[in-house]
Amino acid sequence: MLTDFLTLGEAGVRPYAEWRKTTTLYYPVIDENPEAFLLSRAGQRATLLARNYTDIVFYADNRGNPAVLPEFSLWDDPDTFRARAQECIDDGLSVHVFLSQKGLFEAVNGHVPPTIAEVKAAWSTFVPAVDDLVTTWCVCLEGNRSLTDDEHNELGAHLRTLTAKPIAGHFLGGNWIALGPWMTDIWYQHKFGSGSRTPWILKSYPGLLEKAAERGLVFTAFEYNHQTTEVVSMLLGKLLRELGVTSFGNGIGEVEWAPVGEAIGGGPVIDLAAILDAIASDDLLRAALEAAICHVPDPVGEITFVGADVPVMPGKVATVTPTIHASAVADDFMVALVTKSAQANSEWADDGGGGNGWVKLLEYWNGGGKNREVAIYYKLHNGSEINPTFTHGIANGRTGGAICVFRGVDPTTPWDVIYDEGLHVKSQTNLTNPTPKAITTVTDGARVFILGYLTDYTLGTHGPSAGYILRVSNNHNDANLHGATKKIAAAGVETPGPLTNSGSSNGEESTFVTLALRPAAVIE
């Protein structure tokens, strides 16, 4: 079963052939129609070889992923795997293997995932039975999506006890992960997209290769030009080589393969040498491609929520010391919300959180009713943080505080939208479910972050606006803190709906701030 797009170029540490190329197609494994499928496999191999392809990638298991390919598992059928792998090897195609794919570990559509222990037990039999035919093993397709780092490392370490062959970790674009010593290769898959995404994806490659070299990993590039023609893929691959990238790979987008049962694979035979030479003599094409690569924004990664401890509510005092979540590490972005139900307007001190380098982004005071006072501070984690203490000008009035921690925020420009009190703060009264203000994000993938304070209200359940994920909350009659986030895939206007709280009220008063975090570029 063939999947995905693998190329292993001149890696240096292993003698891979120059310009190794693969593609994506359905390579029949199970013989529902043995004669037709035999012809189909032969035709597909012939078409690959006619294009000078040298590698093929198999799934060993496709349970939980029926929308993509038929469900099957070869873990308990090494003989079938050996037969399919051997016919590829006999024709000159090296075999690489995804032992599992993301759907296996996801409980969706009635699928029941196996335990990690069950997977390890199955591999203990399957891998030794076929290892001699395999060039590279990979633990899981898009492993960072459905496995925790601990699970990924447990499976990888076990696989290392079963084989001396190279083992890869396969990750989605924007998720650079270096796992345990079992991993020798990284298969880096950029997210699917149109050809318009190609230039900035290519721009990231030199930096990614440098990172791989620092970690001693063989770097393999996946899916950098999906949904365009094979010719464009080859031209861009050629340009990558000339710009100094040593390994590249891509899926074919618009090649029509022959239906199952036909003897010869579809599509014209591509004159690879002629295409690769064409770019050398086409100055306009080369100039256009180089300009695109050199003058587009860096690709951005994914902001992830690390965690937030329960809000600290010390009572009617002048200071509050919220706690930093234990999972926070260096370069994580921390945002602190501190609140005061005071009887007179005063100030939250701009002293760095007790001299700890915190920056006060904003302070807002509403003089009606409970005199709600909200301040927001932020800081990049320095690797050895202590919990900050924020100080208010008066002790009277209940005090509260909480810290949310994020990963993948742009360290230089963490706020995607410049804060404007008139645009981004909203105070309301007598509403169980107040509505935060809208915001217009600038960067694709920005994370809208709503922070707020609700008084005179006893919560039954604390609910965010529809589409948002609640990150921090507490249940206190005079001071309910609120934090919620939502990823905005395409930059533009985001209009949050009302909160979805349930509980008893006594003339609620609220202040909510709508902010947006900017994702970091993949290459800093």
TrEMBL record:
The name this protein goes by in its record: Uncharacterized protein
Protein source organism: marine sediment metagenome
